[in-house]
Structure formats: C-alpha cells, structure tokens
Amino acid sequence: MGAAASLLLSCNKPDNGGATGGGSEEKPGVGTPVVDERGPFDNEIGKTLSPWTEGCLDIHAVNSGRGECTFFIMPDGTSLCCDAGEITKDGSEASGDHPRVDQKPNANTRPYVTYANYISHFLPDGKDYLDYMLMTHFHNDHFGSPTDKSYTEVTRMGLTWRQSGIMALYDIVPFDKMIDRAYSPSDTKYDFVKESGVSYSAGYDQYANFIQWARASKGLKVERAKLGSTSQIRLVNDPSAYPDFAVEVNAVNGKVKGDESEVTKAIAENGTSISFMISYGGFDYLTSGDAGTNTVVGRPLADVINKKIEAMKAHHHFAWDTMSEYIMNIYQPKVIVSQSFYDHQPDMGHEWKCYGNSYVDKTSYEFQNAWKSYGQDSDKNWYFTNIHPKTSQMYPDEVIKMKSLNGHVVIRVKEGGDEFYVYVLDDTDFEYKVVQIDGPFSCHAE
C-alpha cells in the first residue's frame, strides 16, 4: 500500500482497494491515536482544537492556499466535504496572471494531501470515510487540476486520470456518495458540462473517467444535485434526534429554488454552482461556490432566501462584483469565511495590472461596498484563510477590519443551534493549534 493510503487506519465503508496517490509530496505519518476528553468548547490558544462531539455542527474551511475545501460534521456525525480544489502553478503579474499566496502548510505538500490529513484528523472516532462529497462546479480551484502533468497518472479499468483534487482525495479518504452538478447515468462522459456551461476548466473528462471507475469498481454512489431537495443530503446516523436540522439545495445549473424554467443556453461556469443552506435550530449557513452577484443566480438566490443568516462562505472568494450591497443587506451575516488565494481577493479596487488590463476599469470596490451595506462594525466578523501581502500593504485601512488574515477557520455550533464560536487554526503544520477564539455568537432574532 502506498504512502498516501497509509493515512487510513482501516476503511469500514467504502473499499478503496488500497489505491495510492503517488508523487513525491510530503505525507506526515499517523501515530497511535490519543484520546482527547475535552469538551467541544474547551479550547485554549496554542493547543490543538478539541474534537467534535455529538450534537454540535462543525464547519471547517481547510486552507491549502490553492483552492476551496470545506469540511462539515453534522450533529449526528454525518460528514460532508464540499470541493477539494487545486491550483498548482505559480502566478505572476509579469505572466499576466494573478499572483498567489504561499501554498500551505508548505510548498512540498500537495493540496489534496493537506485536505486528507485535516479531514482524517477531525473525523469522528471510528470513522475513516466521508458520507458525502459535493463538487460545486467544474473549476480547478474546486475539483482539481488533472491536466497538470506533475501529478501521478493512473489507469484503472482502461480509464485514465491524474491524481489531483477530488480524484486523489478518494484514495486517501473515500466517500460513500458523490454529488455534482452534471451527473447522469446515461451521460458517462459528462457531455452535459459543455452543454450547460462555458468557461469550465479542462480536465472534467478525467473526472468523468474517475467517476466511471469508482462507480463500477468501488460502488461509489453518484447523483446530480436536486434543486430544492432537503433529503439528498441528510443525516445518516440518527436523523430522528435532530428534527430541526436540514440541508437544502437552493441553486444549481443557473436555476434557483422554485424556478421551473429550462436552461436554454450555456451560462458561465461560476453561475452553474451548487448552492446549499444548512439550517440547525436558529442557525443558518449558506455556501454557493462561485455563484456571486455577477452570475445569473446571485441576486435571485438572495431574493428567494430573503432572510438574515448567521454565517456564509463568501461567494467566489470575495472577488469582483460577487458580494453586492443588495444581497449583503438581505443576508446580514454575522460571520463570513472567505477562502481567498489570489492578490485580488477580496476585491478592494485594485489598481495594478491583471490579465493585461487595468483592474480598476472593472472594479466594484467589493469589500468596501459590502462592509457598509448593513449594521455596525461589530456586527461583521469576516475571516480570510489568506490575504496576499500586497493587499495588506496597499489597503491597510480595509485589512485591519478583518477578523483573520490566514489559517484554517472553524465555525462550531452548539447543540440545538442557538449559539456558535469561531476558531482560527495554525495552517503551517499538521497540529491544528488554535491561534484565535471568537464568540460566543448568538443567532439572529426571528
């Protein structure tokens, strides 16, 4: 068994067949598990975050500096990972690309290994697989970069792909069900991607090969996201114990909940993103991939939800025209977590050259406009997994408003869903030590 697969202590479900990830990336070993008897909110600065316990809802923004990955542990221990992105090449202004932040925890650890180690560490005791994996849309920073030739190429059942992102994560932390925006049993090549989206990333055909193999060889369940469903993602261990918990798919493929119209032409890939809301008691959390205000669903989705929410993942990494005053005035989130990794995230009205054009020509000063859209400064707690040093230097008055500038960000909701904390964890190693504790936050009054 390869080094990547050695992270598994055992695999109760499903069977990954001992497949390996390959490559020369750094992979820390796993020692004898240590029982941690602390309660979920018994945390101190400088100590590893305490484990999840039953009744709590955990939302972990896992930082690799190269893509989005959010890991959820639901009140009964049901687990979900949303996206496992990998952008691997360096970017620079000179090449016409956006400069990136440093890769975390170091330059030698592939992002999918970073995600796998983090998930393996925090999964509830006795479990070494995910119940659900969800991919919001077909962009590299959300599903991987299988066209990158530095990744190991595998061929199984005559089907070939490179081990990156979601495809590589499966070999270390398998998942029982895969949900994406395009799957159909009659469309094994995922032709629906090019029929429904434009500007999707190369490599989705390799993802299709992976899905075909995993279904046939490992019994992976695969489904297209079902708009409006509250049963597609559900508690699998003890649902009757938490009747006030639900996950609702509220947008996919350019349509929002309640929209019966047909998609008649391909739309920008960001606008096809799966959006879902997690509700637990008085707590609501929204995540929508890259479907911000500059897509066909950003504003209609806010109109459909039409209420204040407690927390959300920033649309499209808080880039240009994604978190408009209009939608922010509706949501009024107490906590925003942005998984940002470029120098223009969040959009501050950048005036340097990007993609050969002046970014200021099309900027919306998104951060500043969103900030002023609702409430007092104390109402806004905005956490960024990364902020590029150039952004900090050029916009100190805006950056000082942020609650965090780097690290894994964890929202932990108390049993019943009426109160929650936010923890920022050190992302420079695999110890997950707490560097910041904020809360408790109360939920909005009805």
Q: Can you give a write-up of this model?
A:
The structure is a single chain. The protein has ten helices and 22 strands. The protein is α/β, with parallel strands linked by helices. The chain has a single domain, classed as Ribonuclease Z/Hydroxyacylglutathione hydrolase-like (Metallo-beta-lactamase, Chain A), CATH 3.60.15. Strands 9-7-4-3-2-1-20-21-22 form a nine-stranded mixed sheet, with no helix packed on it. Strands 11-10-13-14-15-16-19 form a seven-stranded mixed sheet. Helix 1 crosses helix 3 (165-172) and helix 6 packs parallel to helix 7.
Provide a concise account of the structure shown.
The chain is α/β, with parallel strands linked by helices and 446 residues long. It has one domain: 4-Layer Sandwich (Metallo-beta-lactamase, Chain A).
Features:
446 residues; Metallo-beta-lactamase, Chain A; 9-stranded mixed beta sheet; 7-stranded mixed beta sheet; 10 helices
Query: How many H/I helices?
Result: 10
What's the CATH C level?
A: Alpha Beta
CATH superfamily: Ribonuclease Z/Hydroxyacylglutathione hydrolase-like
Strand percent estimate: 15-25%
| Overall radius of gyration | 20 Å
Which SSEs are present, and which pair or pack?
Blueprint: E1 57-61, E2 70-73, E3 79-82, H1 111-122, E4 130-134, H2 140-143, E5 153-156, E6 159-162, H3 165-172, E7 175-180, H4 191-196, E8 197-198, H5 204-218, E9 221-224, E10 245-252, E11 255-256, E12 267-268, E13 275-280, E14 283-287, H6 298-305, E15 311-313, H7 325-331, E16 335-338, E17 353-354, E18 357-358, H8 366-371, E19 381-384, H9 389-394, H10 396-399, E20 408-413, E21 419-425, E22 434-442
Parallel strand pairs: 3-4, 4-7, 7-9, 8-12, 14-15, 15-16, 16-19
Antiparallel strand pairs: 1-2, 1-20, 2-3, 5-6, 10-11, 10-13, 13-14, 17-18, 20-21, 21-22
